[in-house]
């Protein structure tokens, strides 16, 4: 009788051991990341220098221009920002072709809120940078860049523009047309 009650209990114990020692199965997961685009996340805004009162002395005024760059290419190729412009003109009067500069590096870009990014590293642009200007905009030149392996994700770099106003400038409302482009590769 004892053997009969022990056999079912032994069978339950063996079955429990077999269930606990079931073999593991390997599986996999996958994801395809498709390349996005390189572009300004927001259109570069206009630069408005503060109004200046002439007094016969040379003056300089400054204005910042945030450039919100989105590199979703996933390539790590880097990028560069190029710029060109027309002369600052008021009627028939104009400021010199070298009137607009970025006197020092805008520094390291900052990641946009909610974005993980690899910020643009050390730029290979020399400062001060002089914005090309002529009656008809000349060939654009590189004003900032992100070397290969940097610049990925959404980030903002903010150059500070300096406008030189000579002491012999004519009074007036001066305007210039700027073209700012974002190009792949440093």
Give me a quick take on this structure.
By secondary structure, this protein is mainly beta. The protein contains one helix and 14 strands, in the order H-E-E-E-E-E-E-E-E-E-E-E-E-E-E.
List keywords for this structure.
mainly beta; 4-stranded antiparallel β-sheet; 10% helix; 32% strand; elongated
Description of the molecule:
The chain starts with a helix and ends with a strand. It is about 10% helix and about 30% strand. The protein has one domain (about 35-45, about 55-165, about 175-185). A hairpin with a 2-residue loop joins strand 5 and strand 6. It has 1 helix and 14 strands, in the order H-E-E-E-E-E-E-E-E-E-E-E-E-E-E. The mean pLDDT is about 90. With about 190 residues, the protein is mostly beta strands. The protein has a 4-stranded antiparallel beta sheet with strand order 1-3-12-8, with no helix packed on it. Strands 2-13-7-9 form a 4-stranded antiparallel beta sheet, with no helix packed on it. The protein has one helix spanning about 1-20, and strands at about 40, 60-65, 65-70, 80-85, 90, 95, 100, 110, 130, 135, 140-145, 155, 160-165, 180-185. The protein is elongated, with a radius of gyration of 31 Å.
